[in-house]
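Below is how a single chain appears once it has passed through the pipeline. First comes the sequence as given, then the structure the pipeline wrote out for it. We keep one example in the README because the format questions we get most often are answered faster by looking than by reading.
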Amino acid sequence: MSVSLALEAPAKVNLGLRIVGRRADGYHELESLFAPVDLADAIALRAERTRDASVSLAIAGDTSGAPPGDANLAVRAARAFLARSGITARVTLGLTKRTPVAAGLGGGSSDAAAVLRGLGQAFPAAVPAHALEEIALALGADVPFFLDPRPAWVTGIGERRAPVAGVPSLALVLANPGVALSTAEVFRAYDAIAAPPAPRAGPPTSLAREFGEDGALAARLHNDLEAPAVRLCPPIARLRAELSAAGARAVGMSGSGATVYGVFADRAAADRAAARIAVAGRGWTRVAATRESR
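Resulting structure:
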């Protein structure tokens, strides 16, 4: 038996992020509104039952910084699925990278989740839903969200999520200074600051108002990790200022950075703003849109 699938692995942005506690094992607990965007990696997956299990990966596209072989989360996801299911199969992955690596957009996590979804389609009932969730969480805190990538209120270390209705399509300009930030380093810097916790927005209750009024939207997009990320990567602050000067209704930072994003009135306004944003060296901008709740 051989199965071939074309999979999509969307990036995400955090529409606000609050740190609300720290567990005994050192992991931080958060509250965040995750929203998938139309920037996505593509994965061609082929699975064929064989006597011995194997996983191979070929990477194309924007390969800068993408881990090869067993270091790649997509490969680790496939190996974990085969180990949990007991299936022996040859899994071949062709990954076309479009989401930049280590940018706070969840690209690697989304790739891993797409592979888990794909293998679940290729081998129905081989791994029950709860076990797939366990595999995803063991791979990384963001991976469970991408098993069902739609706007969701995410809590815990990322393992608890609830779909959120009323999230509109937002026109965004994503801007990155070309610096890969380590999530662990950003959290260490957050702990070192020891500032009083920022006001918490809590679960979304009035999204129509929050996304319709610039002041409410700016409050919603607050990210507790932005201050420590700026300490580690000062150009984040410059890009934030440039997005505001280019007409963004509000500006936020995704995940632990270094990507910041501006929310614009429409796609045309985002296109004009992206042309104005000055990036240096390995920096980049992308125009994208969040996906509406369904």
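The mean pLDDT is 92.

See the next section for the split statistics.
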